[in-house]
């Protein structure tokens, strides 16, 4: 069952949303409905993050001058030694 909903939004946001919906060939109403459905259907926000993901999410950045080729070659050599 469909119902009417009145929203007050910034005019610029409305215009951008209309253009976006038009480009996607969907009505603005359907676009908003799909968005609201997607954010409200995700009931389980308290899922556990795996230890692996936690371990790689340190926030450390990779140096810009890192020599990937040397790093790859060193890694390959280490694997060759390990599995001889």
Overview of the structural elements:
This protein has 84 residues and is an all-alpha fold. The chain has four helices and no strands. It has helices at residues 11-23, 28-40, 51-56, 68-82.
Describe the structure in brief.
This protein is an all-alpha fold and 84 residues long. Helix content is 56%, strand content 0%.
Radius of gyration: 25 Å
Are there runs of 5+ residues with pLDDT below 50, and where? Answer: none
Order of helices and strands: HHHH
Roughly what is the average pLDDT, rounded to an integer?
84
Helix share, percent: 55-70%
- Tally of extended strands? 0
What would the principal axes of the Cα set say about the shape? elongated
Entry keywords:
single chain, mainly alpha, 4 helices, 56% helix, 0% strand
Strands, helices and their partners?
Layout lengths: L10 H13 L4 H13 L10 H6 L11 H15 L2
